[in-house]
């Protein structure tokens, strides 16, 4: 489903070529509550609920919308699931998915039984240990704690690691990338999404943490929805094209950006990029 671009300029050109089409499609979708289509994850006809996860002014948030009536996965979640399916070596692959209280985790776990899910439960928790945890939307359950900057997995032990909209909330994202590289076996793959601003050559540092727990802001504070925290989670980074160089510096030999714009499949936001980095 995804078109993978190893050349960032080709990805940018492809997104720009879609711009007028995207605007027209979003104008149409903004007037609809649901549309018929085909779910690439379910592999069957479905109805997509357009408006999910809030809105931007008078426009639906299509990145977090287009929820399938059957699997209940959103646009972004299905993209991650499809990217995992395209890059996983087989059903028994050793996968770490850095979320556990989501429909995406449950769906990937069902398809790939050796998937290990986790959440970041706080700086006081022990890496790799499970805690009884209640998220803001789910009942109490055992949830594994992982810190992406200090993963508990052994070096060279995983066939694939995936995370979705995590790194923008991690101040030391370079340490996170190095950890993802460390735990993957040679030739294995990291798949992830972040809000990606391809028009910017360099990433924007929005703020930094202070030793007393406060934040110093370099840009207007931005918080994203978080299933474990009702108040949302602070955004440290708005990533630009230099993220590709950072992935290579972290030890990944082949880096590409995945793009899928297919309205009939519920993939309608050209700004929803999936990164693939092979160790």
From TrEMBL:
Instruction: Report domain Methyltransferase type positions.
Output: 124-192
The UniProt entry, under InterPro entries, shows: Methyltransf_11, SAM-dependent_MTases_sf
Which GO BP terms sit in this record?
A: methylation
Gene3D superfamilies membership: Vaccinia Virus protein VP39 (3.40.50.150)
- What GO molecular functions are on record for this protein? methyltransferase activity
Report which superkingdom the organism of origin falls in: Bacteria
User: Do you know which Pfam families this protein is assigned to?
Assistant: Methyltransf_11 (PF08241)
Which keywords label this protein? Methyltransferase, Transferase
Kindly provide the name given to this protein in its UniProt entry: Class I SAM-dependent methyltransferase
The root-end lineage is: Bacteria, Pseudomonadati, Pseudomonadota, Gammaproteobacteria, Lysobacterales
């Amino acid at each position: 489903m995804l078109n993978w671009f190893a050349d960032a300029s080709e990805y940018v050109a492809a997104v720009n070529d879609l711009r007028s089409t995207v605007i027209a499609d979003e104008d149409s979708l903004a007037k609809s509550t649901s549309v018929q289509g085909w779910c690439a994850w379910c592999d069957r006809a479905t109805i997509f609920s357009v408006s999910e996860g809030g809105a931007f002014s008078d426009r639906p948030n299509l990145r977090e919308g287009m929820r399938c009536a059957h699997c209940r996965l959103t646009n972004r979640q299905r993209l991650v699931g499809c990217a995992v399916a395209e890059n996983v070596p087989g059903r028994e692959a050793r996968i770490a998915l850095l979320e556990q209280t989501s429909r995406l985790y449950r769906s990937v776990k069902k398809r790939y039984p050796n998937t290990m899910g986790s959440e970041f439960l706080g700086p006081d928790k022990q890496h790799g240990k499970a805690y009884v945890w209640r998220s803001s939307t789910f009942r109490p359950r055992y949830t594994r704690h992982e810190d992406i900057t200090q993963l508990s997995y052994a070096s060279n032990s995983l066939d694939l690691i995936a995370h979705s909209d995590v790194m923008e909330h991690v101040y030391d994202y370079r340490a996170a990338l190095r950890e993802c590289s460390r735990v993957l076996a040679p030739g294995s793959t990291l798949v992830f999404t972040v809000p990606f601003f391809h028009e910017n050559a360099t990433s924007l540092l929005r703020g930094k943490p202070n030793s007393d727990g406060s934040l110093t802001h370099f840009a207007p504070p931005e918080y994203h929805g978080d299933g474990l925290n009702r108040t949302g989670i602070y955004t440290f980074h708005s990533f630009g094209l230099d993220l590709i160089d950072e992935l290579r510096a972290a030890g990944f030999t082949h880096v590409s950006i995945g793009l899928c714009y297919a309205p009939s499949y519920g993939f309608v936001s050209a700004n929803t990029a999936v990164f693939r980095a092979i160790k």
